[in-house]
Write a structure and sequence with these properties.
The structure holds two protein chains of two kinds. Chain A is an all-beta fold. Chain A is about 0% helix and about 40% strand. Chain A contains no helices and 30 strands. Chain A has strands at about 5-10, 15-20, 25-30, 35-45, 50-55, 60-65, 75, 90, 95-100, 105-110, 120-125, 125-130, 140, 160-165, 175-180, 180-185, 195, 215-220, 230-235, 235-240, 250, 260-265, 270-275, 290-295, 305, 325, 335, 340-345, 355, 360-370. In chain A, the strands form eight sheets. In chain A, strands 3-2-1-30 form a four-stranded antiparallel beta sheet, with no helix packed on it. In chain A, a hairpin with a 7-residue loop joins β16 (about 180-185) and β17. Chain A is globular and about 55 Å long. Chain B has a single domain (about 1-95), classed as Ubiquitin-like (UB roll). Chain B is an alpha+beta fold. Chain B has a five-stranded mixed beta sheet, with helices on one face. Chain B has three helices and five strands; from the N terminus they run βαβαββαβ. Classes of the chains: A mainly beta, B alpha+beta. The interface of A and B includes residues 57 and 62 of A.
Chain lengths: ~375, ~100
């Protein structure tokens, strides 16, 4: 009998939700770290009971937590994130140079093979790695010190490295995405990086071939096809079939191609999910209707999934790390909202139920499938 | 022993109640108190002051004996009432954010 465990980060603490494979009844524990912002929690694929959590506060800074029992108990580990070498500047909102300053960890990505190795994506944009279970962190400075770095400017949420995708077929390859610099790829374990933004078109960037400056919101990969990536950009849903060398738009018939989340069905590499948001000035669903859109053709042709989701007076947002899939035979999809709901579908999105209704604003959702 | 009152979020982090007691080595100063806190409760490292610069985090304040000591130099001796345990050293998350 398998179980599913959801790791939910919110503005005021973390929650752990567990269910059997029917995914009908859920036990909810939390809040863990009550009162703290939990941007992200994620478990190791190599040891699912090894969890990492990014805990932060505008008052008290960054804390990193680690659990070795699936989230029942936690231990604060290292929270010193020091940029390597002489720290230069990036572009500020007004165009002036601004010193790189560490603010928080947005995303944690455990190694696919070693529970003690974990990557952390930070604001201001930088990638860190720990090889000792989070006790100490070293910056992979080749990304931040890319020659384009001084031209990177923050998105509305800050200059954040929010997406880290590890290639399961090539341990040397890492993808990262930064708002609002774009997508980057390393083919040497994170030592050197290059932008992979060809084909992205962004309003406000006159140069259609701009190497950086794109506000990428999220990238998703199916592990069976690591050359194929799906992207929810600030505007536009995109895909690449060559590991980011070129991107093409697949927004198709979406009611809005603005949004944050994007994910891939566990067993169907061409089935993808997004949650359209009306616009960057509204940050709520079009028409007050919360709809997940599914494409079974790798994009362009989308169907609205509404059963069980509010279809009137709904003005929540779904943030970039707040969607995840499990790996049961009937693929489960989960997402959380800024209104504090966590929705679950045990039938690949055909129908939805709310596990909880009234959490603090949900920032992240990660699903673990446990045997 | 010096009595230290922690703000709620740091109590949660350290797994302690409202007040803890620390013993400082040498002169009783803000720096010595924070050193002792970070030594006794490693989870608090970096939450009250920057790891490298040792500067107080901007929204953390230090009070004692109805005085705001936040802008005192970190090696300034603490008031006698704090040193002899009559009054606590208060670590406060500044009111901020509406």
């Amino acid at each position: 009998m398998s179980t599913v465990r959801l790791l939910v980060g919110t503005r005021k603490g973390a929650f752990v939700m567990t269910s059997d494979e029917k995914r009908e009844k859920w036990e909810v524990s939390g809040p863990h770290f009550a009162g703290w912002e939990i941007y992200h929690l994620k478990g190791s694929k190599a040891n699912p009971n090894r969890l990492y959590a990014s805990q932060s506060s505008g008052w008290f800074g960054q804390v990193l937590q680690r659990s070795d029992d699936g989230g029942q108990t936690w231990e604060a580990v290292g929270n010193q994130f020091q940029y390597e070498g002489e720290v230069s500047t990036h572009k500020w909102y007004d165009g002036s140079p601004h010193p790189w300053e560490f603010a928080r960890v947005w995303h944690l990505e455990p190694s696919l093979t070693d529970p003690d190795t974990v990557y952390a994506g930070a604001e201001d944009a930088a990638l860190f790695r720990s090889e000792d279970g989070g006790q100490s962190w070293q910056e992979l400075a080749g990304l931040r010190t890319h020659p384009s770095g001084p031209s990177w400017a923050p998105g509305a949420g800050g200059l954040c490295l929010h997406t880290i995708v590890l290639d399961p077929s090539d341990p040397d390859r890492i993808f990262a995405a930064i708002s609002a610099a774009g997508a980057f790829r390393s083919d040497d374990k994170g030592q050197t990086w290059r932008p992979i933004n060809r084909g992205l078109r962004s309003e406000g960037i006159p140069d259609p071939n701009a190497e950086v400056g794109h506000c990428v919101h999220r990238i998703a990969m199916h592990p069976s096809r690591p050359e194929v990536l799906f992207m929810q950009k600030h505007w536009d849903v995109m895909r690449t079939d060559d590991a980011g060398e070129t991107w093409t738009e697949i927004s198709g018939n979406l009611p809005s191609d603005f949004g944050f989340v994007i994910d891939v069905h566990t067993h169907e590499p061409e089935t993808i999910y997004v949650v359209p948001i009306k616009s960057d000035s509204h940050h709520f669903p079009p028409d007050g209707r919360l709809r997940v859109y599914r494409s079974r053709s790798g994009g362009n042709e989308w169907e609205a999934l509404t059963k069980g989701l509010p279809q009137r007076d709904c003005y929540v947002n779904v943030l970039r790390d707040a969607m995840s899939v499990d790996s049961l035979d009937s693929c489960g999809i989960y997402f959380g909202t800024t209104g504090g709901q966590v929705y679950a579908s045990a039938d690949a999105g055909d129908s939805w139920t709310a596990i909880v209704h009234d959490l603090p604003a949900v920032v992240s959702v990660e699903a673990q499938t446990l045997s | 022993m010096i009595r230290v009152v922690l703000p709620p979020n740091l109590r949660t982090l350290a797994g302690v109640g409202r007040e803890v007691q620390v013993e400082v080595q040498g002169a009783a100063t803000q720096r010595a108190v924070i050193d002792a806190l970070e030594s006794g409760y490693p989870a608090l490292r970096g939450t009250m002051r920057d790891h490298l610069t040792q500067r107080r985090r901007p929204l953390v304040r230090f009070y004692a004996c109805e005085e705001d000591l936040s802008d005192e130099a970190p090696d300034t001796p603490l008031p006698d009432a704090v040193v002899n345990g009559t009054e606590p050293f208060l670590i406060i998350g500044a009111m901020s954010g509406g």
